[in-house]
Each structure stands twice: as C-alpha cells, then as structure tokens.
Amino acid sequence: LFQPYGSFFWSTPLMEGLGGILLSPSRGLFVYSPILLCSFLGMALAWRYPGDPLLRALSVGILPTLMLYGKWINWWGGGSYGPRLLADLTPILSVCLVPCVVRLETIHRRRWTVWGCKWLFLALALWSIWAHALGAKVLNVFFMVCTGRGEELTDITPTQYEEVLGYLVDCQDR
User: Fold this and answer.
1) Phi/psi at 145 (nearest 5 deg)?
2) What DSSP element (H or E) covers 123?
3) Cα–Cα distances in Å, from 109 out to 47, 104, 115, 118?
4) Which end of the chain is more exposed for a tag (fewer CB within 10 A), N or C?
5) What's the predicted TM-score (pTM) here?
6) Which residues in 84-105 are b (16+ Cβ under 10 Å) and which e?
C-alpha cells in the first residue's frame, strides 16, 4: 500500500501510545511521577470560576502534546530512564499542582478527608522524588534492549545482555 510521506512515523494507535507514555512500567509518566496526576485536577480547578488565566493558557497545550507523542511511532523515547519525551511537560504540570495545594489548604469541611488527601499528596510526591532519585543514582542498562513496539528489534542478544548484567553484579561485589 502507498503511504503518504511521513505517515509511517505517526502510525501508533492513539490509545496504545497514550497508555504507553502515561502508564507503561518503563516509560509511563504516572509511574515515575504519580504526583502529576493531581495536575489534571489542578487544571480542572483552573477552568472553574474564578480560575487563573495563566493556568488555563498552559493547560490548553497539554492534551495536544500528549496526543502528538502518543501517535508517534517511537512513543517510548528510545534508550533512556523514565518518561523522557514528556520532560518538557513536567514544569507545566508542576505549575498546575498549585490549585490543588491551595484547595487542600482552604477546605475545612471534613477534617479526616482533608488529612487523607494531604497524606496521599505527600505519598505521591515522595514516590515521585524516589523514582527520579533512583534513576539518577542507579546505572541503567535496560536501555540496551528496545521496548515498546520495536521489541523484535534488539540492539544486543539476550546472551550478551546476561553477560552485561553478570559483569555489573561482579563490579558491585568488588
């Protein structure tokens, strides 16, 4: 079949790509930064009256960016640790956390619910910090094997991969 120039690069089914960049164990944004789930709540709060116009403007670009990367054939971002392709969105998503924090400070209805939300927020933040600290500290050799749709294309054989892992274990034991 004839494909127009460039259509091959955007051939990933959207739900597969979105699931991969948001929920995949090796590349999912919410696996490595679950605190950013609260960003979407913050964006919803920004669109309520009286919302912040800056947050409204910032939130407009998030969905198209997620859809763009979700359709790209290389949605996993190649050999890297975590959600590399969405690194540009993390500052915007972090700013969108502000309405959630403000909302947690102003709710006084059910004390146990507010404390539960605060503890959940703290737990998600600590998980996010831990996941990124782990990536900065640990040598990641998993980038040598392709993930995602390209898993039949491997950079090294399984035997070579086992040899590298064995070498790393030996180095740690020294």
Assistant:
1) -115, 130
2) helix 111-137
3) 23, 11, 11, 14
4) N
5) 0.72
6) ebbeebbebbebbbbbbeeeee
